[in-house]
Design a protein that fits this description.
339 residues; alpha+beta; Rossmann fold; Dna Ligase, domain 1; 3 domains; four-stranded parallel sheet; 11 helices
Length: 339
């Protein structure tokens, strides 16, 4: 399929529907709205929590004004505000789409299936979203034959007794008791008894179980793939910019970049991991679409730490370079519009 064929296919999918774009930040919808208009979609509505930074979309915007105390809290509040829509939102959607034919595009990491009765296009299946739990993904690594760092799954109260740390200590991460989490929000770096005590107190409030692993010294990075109906495409690895918090308690995820390029052996190892994981995703849960594996390239090779069974920042960079609307493509792939 060449670019002209792709554009025609996407036009046939997206150009004949009304669309509701539900993203937590309105400015994030600007590019989506522009692409949908290019593909022939005329009737567009945006739902967002707040304006964000940057140009606003060329479409009417309804703001839920949902808020959270953290990045994750804000995202969850927005997803809740569209899944359990307030009467004001429902009325606005009914006015925009009186015959109930609109479809919804929303964030890739949610599991919302409908907004005000309108189906989410290319919605993530619950079984796929469940794989984002960092305390249970080890089963998938095993199925795919992927080597991992030592790890122990335990309760927050027992985690301080786990002896896996070297001179750089251990890293604890929560289960999904409170829902999906990312960007290091539910991760703690434990090096001292005082760190452990603080971590036990925090995780007791937020998790049923935690995964304890040694601190992995190396380059934080990710490898990505896309499962289609007739194969698996694997992409080049990317560096993740992960900063240590000033108080030493954890980490801050600052985005991905493609300046870094691992040596050929490491690159092929990471691409092989991506391919094996893609095959396991397809065979175990019928997965379709983009996915990413985060981890650390250590002196012992690439060791995965989490799976993102969805579109992620690591897909955005190559998609932008190739000028491809990968978000719209992946939703159509999941929904059966592309093969």
């Amino acid at each position: 399929m060449d670019r002209a064929d792709l554009e025609a296919r996407l036009n046939g999918i997206y150009g004949r529907h009304r669309w509701i774009i539900a993203l937590d930040v309105a400015a994030a919808a600007t590019g989506v709205v522009a692409t949908l208009r290019r593909l022939g979609a005329a009737d567009l509505m945006v739902i967002a929590a707040t304006e964000g930074v940057g140009d606003l979309p060329d479409a009417p915007v309804l703001y839920t004004r949902s808020r959270g105390d953290t990045v994750m809290g804000g995202i969850r509040a927005f997803l809740s505000s569209i899944e359990d829509a307030a009467p004001r939102l429902v009325s606005a959607v009914e006015e925009f789409d009186p015959d109930g034919r609109a479809r919804v595009i929303t964030v890739p990491f949610g599991s919302v299936q409908a907004v005000a009765g309108r189906p989410v296009y290319g919605a993530r299946r619950p079984a796929w979203g469940a794989l984002e739990d960092k305390t249970t993904v080890g089963d998938l690594w095993s199925a795919a034959g992927i080597a991992t760092a030592p790890q122990v799954l335990t309760t927050p109260q027992e985690a301080a007794r786990v002896d896996l740390g070297g001179p750089l200590g251990t890293v604890w991460v929560a289960d999904n008791r409170e829902g999906w989490h990312g960007a290091g929000d539910y991760v703690r770096w434990v090096r001292t008894p005082a760190d452990a005590a603080a971590a036990v107190e925090w995780f007791t409030t937020h998790a049923h179980r935690v995964r304890v692993m040694p601190f992995l010294d190396g380059i934080p990075c990710s490898t990505h793939g896309i499962v289609t109906g007739d194969g698996i495409a694997v992409l080049r690895p990317l560096e993740m910019i992960v900063l240590r918090l000033a108080d030493g308690s954890g980490f801050f995820y600052a985005g991905a970049c493609n300046f870094w390029d691992p040596d050929e052996e490491a690159r092929e190892e990471m691409r092989s991991v991506a391919r094996s994981v893609g095959e396991a995703l397809r065979d175990r849960v019928g997965y379709l679409g983009p996915y990413g594996i985060d981890g650390v390239l250590t002196e012992d090779g690439f060791l995965p730490t989490e799976l993102n069974p969805r579109l992620s920042a690591g897909h955005a960079l190559p998609a932008r370079a190739a000028d491809l609307p990968l978000g719209l493509m992946s939703r159509a792939l999941v929904d059966g519009g592309l093969d």
